[in-house]
Design brief:
Blueprint lengths: L14 H10 L5 E2 L1 H16 L4 E2 L1 H16 L8 H12 L3 H14 L26 E2 L1 H13 L3 E4 L2 E6 L1 H9 L5 H7 L5 H9 L8
Helix pairs in contact: 2-3, 3-4, 3-7, 6-7, 7-9
Amino acid sequence: MGFLRRKFDAKPGSRAARAKVADRKAATHRVTLDLARAQAFAVMLAKSRKAQAIEAPDLLAGMYICNWDRLSLYWQEEDRDEIESFLRGICRISPERWHAWIEMYDGLRHPGESWSILKPFGKREKAPALDSEPRPSGALEAILKRAEEIAPSRDSSGGQSVPILTSECVLLCIVRSFGSELTRKLAITGLDAQRLERDALFPRRPPLS
């Protein structure tokens, strides 16, 4: 999968860094910048649990922290405070970790700052080898595979056309993961699945990968 192919010490806007990593392995998809950031948070959350696999709630947590301004549009405004608390519970984020990560993400919005998930937690360390990182679980792999199948936008990689995954597209596939506990919990939050499906499958603008 094309999951977290960037090194953590690479700048998110560096095309050369992304291309270098992509050259090492044949990518089955590309991701938008906001989804790449969500994936990095998902890895950090999995590592905080000392888990060997990244689960769907980990990625949802990253999407929530990094892209809530957009994803919140799929819930009624009067319900969003309650939904945020509900999502924090699903994602198993403690209040202390939540505030630390929000401060980190706010720092990313200042122009000219390089993006490193290690920076707020002490001195910069050498990024671990890619093979030592937690990998997506089977359930999350299945979600990403379905997202590849429905993604409307594509890009070229190694002479092949590959899908570009967005947060909306991945969220839609999480919602469609029938039978999972996470899907059942999301179903009772009042999520506007029809609007999400429309935006995921028929985006008004091409994604920026």
